[in-house]
Every structure is written in structure tokens, then in C-alpha cells.
User: What shape does this take?
Amino acid sequence: MRDLAGSVEVFRVERLSDGLEVCAWLNWTNWPGSHRIGLSAVIEDTDGNISYWALAHPSDKPDFHHPDSFALILPPPEPA
Assistant: This one.
């Protein structure tokens, strides 16, 4: 488990009726060394309320380091 070694370039953010869609490029220098990803965010709204977002919340409290929160499984790399 480690943070992204690289950079993130957000190129589109769209508010939907039931959420927020963020499209970004992940400039991930150590891929394909990892095959499971946990995407998460802590968002503070304009009123100061904080919400915790993740692909999965395996327990009743936010725990972004829980192994089950790494819910996005990447396919193996294609041969060169």
C-alpha cells in the first residue's frame, strides 16, 4: 500500500444529479507493478461539512487503508 508515485491531471469535473464525476489522467510511474487500486477523497463543502468518498467502505467508518477498500482491479499489462 502506497501513495501514487507520479502526478494527477484533472481534465473534466461534472456535477451530476446524484454525484460528481471527475475525469483525470494518472501519470503513474510504477504501473503495472500494482493491480489493485483504492481511489478515495475527502471533500469539504462550502458550509464546512466533510464527507468521505471511496470505491468501497468495508467498515462503518472511513478507513482508506483497509485492504478491502482497494476495489478497482486492473487487468494485467498487455505484452509489448
About this structure: The longest strand covers residues 6-16.
